[in-house]
Amino acid sequence: MTLAVWIYRTILGLCFCMVPFGMYAQELNAKVTFNTQQLETSLRDRFTTLQSDLQEFINGQQWSSAQFSQVEKIRCTFAFTISEMTDNDKYNASLIIQSSRPVYNSSYNTNTLNWQDDNITFTYSEGQTLTFNEFNLDNELIATVAYYVYLILGIDFDSFAPHGGEPFLSRAENIVSQMQNAEGKGWSAFADKKNRHAVITAMLSESQSAYRDLWYTYHRSGLDQMAQSADKGRAQISEAISQLGKIREVDVQTPLLSMFISSKLDELINIYSKAPRNEKDEVFATLSEEYPTYISQLEKIKQ
Questions:
Q1: pLDDT by residue (tens digit) across 110-133?
Q2: Which of 44, 130, 135, 301 has most Cβ atoms within 10 angstroms of its Cβ?
Q3: pLDDT digits (tens, 9 = 90+) for 157-171
Q4: Could you give the C-alpha distances from 7 to 55, 103, 299, in angstroms and in order?
Q5: Cut 0.90: pTM above it
Q6: What is the rounded CA–CA span in Å between residue 125 and residue 75?
Q7: Positive/negative CA dihedral, 144, 100, 74, 150
Q8: Is 256 buried (19+), middle (13-18) or exposed (0-12) by CB count in 10 A?
């Protein structure tokens, strides 16, 4: 990504809250897939149509006032696995959502989201038109996709400017509020510590705002500086992850900690592979305390 584009994205993140929603351009370069192996063969063809229509819907929808050129678009994937048809045209599914952004002055892309949602329910009949009105939602599939689009955008903009993704996260919160009476379990307050309601509540919580500060430091002060100085960039990343404990102190079950490690585990192992021994030991101690179930993977940091 060029310097001009990088400056643009950073400035856009800083001033986005002041931009009226009137001038639109598509922001995403999304790929949609459906795994239907658990369904009867006769039911699978309809998802070929849905896959194409949903991908076109995501990439063609105007999600904000931000202006994106082709090279600036956020790369992301929506991978659905359909587990069963519970009734006529009603389905249960899981969804893996991934997104990334480029690291400045490099060919490397860093994961910004790698999340699995196992509470996907929706109704779909072949040929159904996909439309979106964020103030009048009546389609659970579209609501779910729109929610994750706004989460992707919020996380991306947060990585370029402090709390730069606030408008997008607020719109995701609005979707959750509207869907409280939906059949799907993923929308319900207090039903699941990692569902859609829990994630957006944590992201917008004042008491957990340190996570979004950490996220900005990790990317703009850390990763984006590593091409110029690997040591200085890595020091900022170390500073960022040292704040994880504060997030846990606020809410030991917050989904934010899971969101961080699911997107950054492999990257952290790679970043510290060339670090001095004292840095390796310090980071390992921090991460192993916060993520005891990942000890075997984290051991690679010390090698």
A1: 999 999 999 999 999 888 899 999
A2: 301
A3: 999 999 999 999 999
A4: 29, 13, 37
A5: yes
A6: 28
A7: positive
A8: buried
